[in-house]
Design brief:
Layout: E1 16-18, H1 23-32, E2 37-40, H2 46-51, E3 59-62, E4 72-75, E5 78-82, H3 87-92, H4 94-99, H5 101-108, H6 113-116, H7 121-126, H8 133-140, E6 144-149, E7 152-157, E8 162-164, E9 167-168, E10 175-182, E11 188-195, E12 205-214, E13 217-226, E14 233-234, H9 236-242, H10 249-262, H11 273-300
Parallel strand pairs: 1-3, 2-3
Antiparallel strand pairs: 4-5, 5-10, 6-7, 6-10, 8-9, 11-12, 12-13, 13-14
């Protein structure tokens, strides 16, 4: 029987294990074994793929002990989150809950508590699933990805990070170091919502919204959707349409129709393309109203 057809606790190939304790050491190892190395943080994706022989790295670099990659820190008008920070830590963080509630909602929606205690936000992003919950929230919150290599570092807007299913804009000698997010401004509100077959399943469709209001008028808006295209996406046309308007029933209906026409979903075991289009419009209306209520509360405060 093929190893790919059985559930096994054995990783059926040989590899060399490395455990760097500094970011520089991790970057140097990744550069030295470029193209032959895999990073291990939570392991919730890598170990599954390794056991199925979908990936067979010659070198495994465990970055769990690299302090620079861990933690959540508020800096002035922004928040930095290390790439190896556990999803459970993000879910439980008062900083994230108060400053970036949509990200807290997204983290809480991923898998089970057991998974979130192991999985990292960097792993969720670098796996580059079109349905990644954290990616949708980060898109709506205007996050930036800071990546480094032994040659230096660079910063990417999160919408430029994803190239396709399983593909990111990082080079083979680069690793994601941290995510930098601006704190929501006064009069702003954000929300994350998700539809899935079960509470532990990946998203059939997910959505994240950021609104900024002035006297109930939308002055800024970001709309992000997942599982409706080859990558998590921003719906730029709908965002521009909403600016300068109140969220009336007519506006919500027109924007929902626009979103349905803008997405490019597939039919798979979780849903048909038609269902995903309809759900995208429904989630948009619900998420917009939640974000609006939160923005009005922040405005009143």
């Amino acid at each position: 029987m093929s190893i790919n057809e059985v559930n096994t606790h054995v990783i059926p190939f040989r590899f060399e294990y490395h455990a760097p304790t500094s970011l520089k050491e991790a970057a140097d190892l990744l550069s030295r074994y470029r193209g032959e190395a895999a990073l291990l943080a939570g392991g919730t994706d890598l170990l599954v793929k390794a056991k199925q022989r979908l990936v067979e790295p010659r070198h495994v670099i465990n970055i769990k002990s690299v302090k620079e990659l861990n933690g959540i820190e508020e800096k002035g008008d922004g928040v930095d989150i290390g790439a190896a920070t556990k999803l459970r830590a993000i879910e439980k963080s008062d900083i994230v809950k108060d400053r970036l509630p949509a990200l807290q909602e997204a983290a809480k929606s991923i898998g089970s508590v057991q998974i979130r205690n192991m999985a990292t936000i960097g792993g969720n992003l670098c796996n580059a699933s079109p349905a990644a919950d954290s990616a949708t929230a980060l898109l709506a919150l205007d996050a930036k990805a800071c990546v480094i290599s032994s040659e230096g570092g660079r910063t990417l807007p999160i919408e430029e990070f994803f190239l396709g299913p399983g593909q990111t804009a990082m080079k083979s000698n680069e690793l994601l170091a941290k995510l930098s997010l601006p704190i929501l401004q006064d009069g702003s509100g954000a929300a994350f919502m998700k539809i899935s077959r079960t509470s532990l399943d990946i998203a059939t469709v997910n959505i994240a919204i950021m609104l900024r209001l002035d006297d109930d008028i939308v002055i800024d808006c970001r709309i992000a959707l997942g599982a409706v295209a080859p990558t998590p996406i921003r719906v730029w046309k709908a965002e521009e349409t909403l600016k300068g308007k109140k969220l009336t029933d007519k506006t919500l209906q027109a924007t929902g129709k626009m979103v349905s026409e803008s997405v490019n979903p597939i039919t798979d075991i979780r849903a048909t393309a038609e269902y995903r289009r309809e759900v995208s419009a429904a989630l948009l209306r619900d998420a917009l109203m939640i974000a609006r209520d939160r923005a009005l509360r922040r405005w009143e405060e």
